[in-house]
Automatic annotation (TrEMBL):
Gene3D superfamilies: 3.10.450.50. This is SecC motif-containing protein. It comes from the Bacteria. Residues 12-110 form the YchJ-like middle NTF2-like domain. It holds the Pfam family YchJ_M-like. It comes from Oceaniferula flava. SUPFAM superfamilies: NTF2-like (SSF54427). Coiled coil: none annotated.
């Protein structure tokens, strides 16, 4: 929660990934928007999130692999599996996320890792 309330900053890409998962869990759309890299942040992202965010019940996050993304790195990758229910149906999201620093802070870039 310190990251969500801007009391701390993510030291690693994995830490940002975990905080973003928690933000989805707690439906903190502003945090998700703020931690998305400006180069890939779609206009209207907040509106898109707010349409869908209440239909998904996140259950569990498993970090499968990380590459770079440490305190002194500029880029990083995190492979994860997130389990959820979408309108009552079980789903899994398997993603290879890329992260990149922006003005010194870790930001989610995309899922093309």
């Amino acid at each position: 929660m310190p990251l969500h309330y801007r009391k701390a900053k993510a030291a690693t890409a994995e830490e940002l990934m975990r905080s973003r998962y928690s933000a989805y869990f707690f439906r903190l759309s502003d945090y998700i928007v703020e931690t998305t890299h400006p180069d890939t942040r779609e206009p209207g992202l907040k509106k898109q999130l707010e349409k869908k965010i209440h239909n998904i019940s996140w259950q569990f996050l498993t970090i499968l692999k990380t590459s770079k993304g440490g305190p002194s790195d500029k880029t990083g990758k995190v492979e994860f599996l997130a389990e959820c229910y979408v309108e009552g149906e079980p789903h899994e999201q398997h993603e290879h996320s890329r992260f990149k620093r922006y003005k010194g802070d870790w930001k989610y870039l995309d899922d093309k890792g």
